[in-house]
């Protein structure tokens, strides 16, 4: 029951984040769909974590080089996702209002991804591997 409630909450917050992203693209005042390229960052963000989890066998260690490298790459992906709409707004490819909506969507989506890994990434009796 608790895992189902967490999954529903994460789905709801992901939908809110994608709504912000779509509003930044589809409102008639903005009308440019360049910010949708941020979706690429959403999809590649968890990949370093998955690779590090698969490669590192020592789950009891406080820190490993592979895990630290995965954190580094994930941080680079997240920072790039926040920088991309700012660069688009600076070169006037999108308006600053659209940039704000995309940044709000980024914050919600990345917090949702973090919440997913905090709730389902522990490897206990109910984990993301069952999905």
Automatic annotation (TrEMBL):
Name of one Pfam family that matches: Vps55
Keyword Transmembrane helix: yes
Coiled coil residues, start to end: none
Cellular component GO terms, alphabetical: endosome membrane; Golgi membrane
Transmembrane segments annotated in the record for this chain: 6-25, 32-51, 71-89, 101-121
Subcellular location: Endosome membrane; Golgi apparatus membrane
Membrane topology per record: Multi-pass membrane protein
Any single biological process term in GO: negative regulation of growth hormone receptor signaling pathway
UniProt keyword Transmembrane present: yes
The entry's keywords: Endosome, Golgi apparatus, Membrane, Transmembrane, Transmembrane helix
PANTHER family: LEPTIN RECEPTOR GENE-RELATED PROTEIN, LEPTIN RECEPTOR-RELATED
Family under the similarity heading: Belongs to the OB-RGRP/VPS55 family.
Name the UniProt record assigns to this protein: Leptin receptor gene-related protein
Higher taxonomy: Eukaryota, Metazoa, Chordata, Craniata, Vertebrata
